[in-house]
């Protein structure tokens, strides 16, 4: 029985507690990209680790299928929006399965259960006096699906989507009384200094809120955008995509039915990119307050991926296709690169050349070579499998502490430190030589057994990060055989 210290601190010290994790839902206006892979894998590691620590886990991913971007893309390819959404939702599900994402639910915002929950949420906020109708002119970025203030624009363009023109919208819409929640949000941030991770993002959102909040539009006229959740009791309007989509975090756990699992799982941990900070850490929290619901447990914000110092984009031709990467290197190798060679909080640069270097140096010549050498010695010289002890399969507290702080790269570094120490031990004690001499054979066999135990412990730590590799290594230890080549050398 594996023993895991209860230091997965963002949960609770109580074994068997319920833990809920969710990613954001990607728009279905394009194929999955490497940024989606990063977010899915990071959240997957959190879910897998919580399960190892004894928690009961619910892990949500899915697709955001309404809004202007999706509607325009469907029109562009001449498809019904629902048919278009169905096609791309299927692609994202295949993508998540290929990445070995251990999700419990794949939420689609076009699903009837979600639509009904979004409408009930609207009614809650309306009853609280936080939804009203008004005529306004706003500057709107289609890329962000957000209204923009002048301070958020540079040369009249959105900083995140400088290739898109800002759209001026002047019409009667429903608005959410965001301004009402400035002080409640500030009190939330002050009371919970770890509410947003990393700390720099908490300071950023606090500064945004402290600067004053403007009510935001939460509907579009159906005659202009027919693709969306119908506003209750008003057939002329559909919900603004962010209002609809954010509700997925609770619709998937059966809100508003108390007996359907909502009270068991909520509040949860949200994983999102830095371009989602305002929506996740301010807008959604204000909406929850309006509906009389608890705020999220925590919001983890990761950075962007760049290539050669530039944001990955099709127009620049520097996009790295994650499906091609998995075909070339294998699924666990892609997970490895995203977890160890991408900073969890800051923007990180990945190129095809750097990925190849990471694969060769650390997986082929590092982990793969270490396991192969040790298990070849064991298969050749040990007559039966090493019987593992509880200590051999114990996860190091420091490893879980790193993951509890979302420092995936540092957790990976700890694993590779153990691999390096194993290589040093082998070089120093030379069991591959001493096992051939009768006078030193007994000590050499003891050294080989010690190395096998280290291999097993490395595999246990790899379980949430590189699950297939972990399974293959532990199987080799149980069978006392050198495994098939874990990471083939590239030609």
Walkthrough of the structure:
By secondary structure, this protein is α/β, with parallel strands linked by helices. The chain has a domain at 310-479: Isoleucyl-tRNA Synthetase, Domain 1 (Orthogonal Bundle). It has 18 helices and 17 strands. A six-stranded parallel sheet has the order 3-2-1-13-14-9, with helices on both faces. Helix 17 (441-462) packs antiparallel against helix 18.
Summarize the entry for a quick read.
By secondary structure, this protein is α/β, with parallel strands linked by helices.
Shape: elongated
Number of DSSP strand runs:
17
CATH class of the domain at 310-479: Mainly Alpha
Helix-and-strand structural type: alpha/beta
Q: Low-confidence stretches at least 5 residues in length (pLDDT < 50)?
A: 1-13
Radius of gyration from the alpha-carbon trace, in angstroms? 25 Å
**CATH homologous superfamily designation of the domain at 310-479:** Isoleucyl-tRNA Synthetase, Domain 1
How would you write the strand order of the largest sheet?
A: 3-2-1-13-14-9
CATH architecture of the domain at 310-479: Orthogonal Bundle
Mean pLDDT over all positions: 92
Number of helices: 18
Largest sheet: 6 strands, parallel
Q: How much strand?
A: 5-15%
What is this structure's SSE topology?
Elements: E1 18-23, H1 34-52, E2 56-63, H2 68-76, H3 81-98, E3 105-108, H4 112-127, E4 131-141, E5 146-148, E6 153-154, E7 157-158, E8 167-176, H5 182-191, E9 196-197, H6 199-210, E10 216-217, E11 219-221, E12 237-239, H7 241-246, H8 248-251, H9 262-265, E13 269-273, H10 277-290, E14 298-302, E15 305-307, E16 310-311, H11 322-329, H12 331-340, E17 348-349, H13 352-381, H14 397-404, H15 408-429, H16 431-434, H17 441-462, H18 467-479
Parallel strand pairs: 1-2, 1-13, 2-3, 9-14, 13-14, 15-17
Antiparallel strand pairs: 4-5, 4-8, 6-7, 8-10, 11-12, 15-16
